[in-house]
Amino acid sequence: MEFRAHVDKLVGASNWSKWKRQVELLLRHHDVHELVSGDRVCPVLAEDATPEVTVLYEKSRKSFMKDDSLAQLVLVGSMDDANVELTATCDSAKSIWEKLLSVYEQSSGQRLDRLMEQFFRSEKDGDDDVVTHIAKLQKNFSELNDELKRVAKTTLPELLLMSRIMSTLPLEFFEFKSVWESIPIEERSVNKLTERLRLIEMRLPSKPDSTALVATKKKAAKKVERKCYVCRKPGHIAKDCWKKDKKQKTSGDAFVCIVEGVTEKEQWIADSGASAHMTSYRKYFLDFKEFPSPKPVYVGNNNAIMAYGQGTVNVDMKVNGKWVSNHLSEVWYVPDVSRNLFSVSQTLAKGFVFRAEGNECSFTRDGHVRLRGIRTVNGLYALKMRVVCPEVPAEVCFASADQSLQLWHERLCHQNKPYVKEFLGQRGIEVCESKVSCEGCLYGKHQRGRFHERPSRPIVTGALIHADVCGPMQERSIGGSRYFVCFKDDFSRFRRVFFMESKSEVPNCLKVFLSEAKTAGHTIKEFLSDGGGEFKNSQVCGMLQSCGINIRYSMPYTPEQNGAAERENRTIVEAARSILHHKGLPLKLWAEAVNTAVYVLNRTGPTREKEKTPIELWSASSFNVHYLKVFGTKCFVHVPKQRRQKLDPKSVAGFFVGYCGEKDGYRVWLKKQNKIILSRDVIFENEASYSVMAQNGKSCSVVNEPSVGHGSEIELIKSSDVPYSDVCQEIGEASCDAIDSKESSDEQERNLRDRSMLKKPARYDNCVLLAEHAEPDTYKEAIASKESSEWLAAMKEEMDSFEANNTWELVNLPQDRKAIGSRWVYKIKKNADGTVQRFKARLVAKGYSQKVGVDFNETFSPVVRWDTIRTVLSVAAYKKLKLVQFDVKTAFLYGDLQEDIYMHQPQGFEDGTGQVCKLLKSIYGLKQAPRVWNERFKSFAMKCGLKQSNSDPCLFLNDEKSIYLIVYVDDGIIASVDEQAVKQFLEKLKSEFSVVIGVANYFLGMQIECLEDGDIFVHQEGYCRKILKHFEMSECNSVSTPVEKGTITTDHSEFLPATVPYREAIGSLMFLAIVSRPDISYAVGVLSQVLDKPQQVHWSMIKRIMRYLKGTEKCGILFKCNEDNTLQCFTDSDYAGDPLSRRSTSGMIFMSYGGAVSWRSQRQSCIALSTTEAEFIAASQAAKEAIWLGNLLSELRCVSTIPVLQIDNQSAIRLVKNPEFHSRT
């Protein structure tokens, strides 16, 4: 008999389970299921088979191929085109089946967890009858049992299914539960339970009809014309009035408002025609606002029903099996609507997307489903949503009307009481006076008091000094300053400024100012400043008190009390800003502009004594106003004959940027040399307006008669931030190297570049991108940020670690010792995918103030090499070792100190005693902290039976238990085949230190994937994406190579401006090239050689590397478990690749177990005279690396053959084997 079966086509994950069941049945019907399950495999012919066996083999093979073709036909014939194309490369039914399983089937553990959660958390849907509900549970139960049978060779009993059915029944079946429990267990069955529940459900009263969303037909056909005697409004009667409860009286003169709590679940219907959400239940509203007059709502039969107000309704929405709290706003109260209506149009207007497919509908926003609904038998969509009625006490009592002014004041929204009394009097309402203070007005209307003028002002110079700090500026000055502090005398209005790199320099500046005031003959009596930490500290207070000066601080958040200093800083900054931008000068000259503004204001500003300037009142000196020049004017400085040769120019062009004394000279900025010089012999050009930065170094012709200053000498200034004094002070020892001479050299000059442009030491290289999230720099920024609670919790956790480790003890500071400072460092830890893991605060000591031989001796501490990490991972793949990662929390706190070190108490955690912390153990920031931690961990590892590797001091081994341990400061990885040994070691580690242990998947920026077949894949996909996003290259087009064919050279294109992040890009790419991407090592290495003066062509090459990363961001290194252990080495070299230095570049790479473990691309330290010599040098460097790798593999118990150097130059090979003709090479 012919058999025909219909199988739905596989379209994706949506019908995978159903399709899989149907196809398995069809395969079993054709007796070919064993081919896809793997129980039947293709026969194999032995090499020594007889002819008879060969005949049987051919017959068996043909039968297998025929059945396999039938199985493939069944599978392919029941799939859509997309899945057919997906399996096009599969050549057998088993491979097709496995391909589909890998795409649509979860792993055993994941699928089992999902099925268990689905079975044990499922609930009865309100729209399902009991038969449908039980069928869903039976399906989940069957799938769960199949998975358990496949994974654990066990199944769940049917009693569990019956128990789950009973636990999910609604309240209507409560009585049946006791009946069912009385039945003996052996007589219970799912079929019997289903039948009984179906009969009980049939006897239950039917649910209200929901065919039409129209008003219920009642006797109130003329409802709109009737009037409620409770609220006096038409459209409803008294029994339906929502104000009815408020009118019910109780004993006495009090009213009682009763709102009953409702727990019944009411359905909400999605209605595309409703203009607003509607409900007939007044009790649902959390808040309610009555309409001025009822609004008509027209329903399907053209009748109008009335809406009387709107408000907010709290609801729970069921999404993915969980109830989520939410609320509906602007819900209309319509007493005559038959069902709760959910307006689709109102929801779409708020950015949601409505989809209705088959028997389900959904509302989504931002790609996430926020609400679902199920189609009922009447074609309506009932939403999975229930109302949460507001919790209101059973009785809310209101006192009788007290005609007091305070009561009416509250009723009229706290308007002022005199107006309230007047308003009520006009309407014939008499109120009694109320002298009660209104607490609500104190909270809502409290204003600050007026600031009255001081009754008396100082009448002598020095009686009152105002002080304030201004900054930080957006750019450092030429001298490296970011702040300035201003001291202003109240009587004379004389001001004095000092420039600072940080606010901590205020005490030193105050000391100088007090000395100058004393020299000028002024006695300072009172000092006024704000309450900032730069003024309110022991140094400043002690200094002022020792001089007998009264200290006064303004109140917190009250800058008006120090208004003179605040206004003075504003005046100075506005003047400096104006003169800078008027001439188009760079912002790094802001200190010169501030100094010039102060100099001019002191000599021209108003005072309390007419016709006298501040400098005249302060120092009794006069001033000639004709001495002033326009800031930024182009000028020419005379070059002394001692500083020039016969034919050299006699002057050098610059720009006037300030004064030195009265008539002792001028300060001139030499733009090309970027330095400040002093000179008395200066010729000024026309002082008319022009822009300095627009000149591009070209000279301007002299228009007017130049003015010549006096003097004959040029002096080079060490820093541009030297404050002016009223007489030209000695700047310090500085040679007159502004102009070169025959005897002087360029190296003798001090080129005063901006400190931000100075090349930082290698330990400060940008090898990792900055965090995208804002991380505060100081304690004040942290507590003022929106994540202040997280940062405070992180700091508290750090302090708890100090207390648990007994890191310090509070003592009085010895007289012969000086305490170092500390600061908080904040970091946002992220996962491999870039999501925030935790907020971390670290207290760091200011170790830069430590002294050698007093606070520390040795500082060196090793870290593991990346070559070692990759080699251990390759061995782990080959030996199929288990990898475990750990992170020692607050690692540096475990180091024991040998020296006595004292530190100030941490900011934000001072106890007010003035004591200091005597460190008993190391903390972060100390110069010896890494070393003492490394020594501590090394001693612990050796106690646990590990020995230190000779190849890498941060690799520890245990040959007996095959444990490999690599440590990078406080992060480490353990690799071992003995899980029990690893577990024992980790227990010891946890007992010794506070550690976080997990699976090794993200280590020091390297992503590690342990594949199912034992291979290990390392890559930096997340870091690549972060680089591309940071440099705005996420949407670029990819290229196939990191660099174009040919040598990277330097052309004559223009140099890059300082704003281009060239160094940052090189640092970011360098980290990638060092860790997991040898393919970009050469390109990044060559481009890093022009960090001092990069050109536009180099920036274009960096962009090409990033475009290459765009197409290869998922690439990495794969270590295979089935590769041989031969160590392979390849070397190469170009010849004179650098056209300027004529030096060659060596390249080498070592392969172990299928992946690269070590590589280099480095410019050779000497100049090779031939290609043979260049290749020979590269081979020499590779040989040293090969010896080291060989020793490392031997320690890891991986016996390898002697590595062979692969060199592509025959002459170099001959030279290695037989060093002849050495004179030619």
TrEMBL record:
Pfam families: gag_pre-integrs, Pol_BBD, Retrotran_gag_2, RVT_2, SH3_retrovirus, zf-CCHC. SMART domains: ZnF_C2HC. GO terms for molecular function: aspartic-type endopeptidase activity; ATP binding; DNA-directed DNA polymerase activity; endonuclease activity; nucleic acid binding; RNA-directed DNA polymerase activity; zinc ion binding. Gene3D superfamilies: Ribonuclease H-like superfamily/Ribonuclease H, Zinc finger, CCHC-type. GO terms for biological process: DNA integration; DNA recombination; proteolysis. GO terms for cellular component: DNA polymerase complex. Residues 454-622 form the Integrase catalytic domain. Residues 226-241 form the CCHC-type domain. Keywords: Aspartyl protease, ATP-binding, DNA integration, DNA recombination, DNA-directed DNA polymerase, Endonuclease, Hydrolase, Magnesium, Metal-binding, Multifunctional enzyme, Nuclease, Nucleotide-binding, Nucleotidyltransferase, Protease, RNA-directed DNA polymerase, Transferase, Viral release from host cell, Virion maturation, Zinc, Zinc-finger. PROSITE patterns: INTEGRASE, ZF_CCHC. The aspartyl protease (PR) mediates the proteolytic cleavages of the Gag and Gag-Pol polyproteins after assembly of the VLP. This is Retrovirus-related Pol polyprotein from transposon TNT 1-94. It comes from Araneus ventricosus. The lineage of its organism: Eukaryota, Metazoa, Ecdysozoa, Arthropoda, Chelicerata.
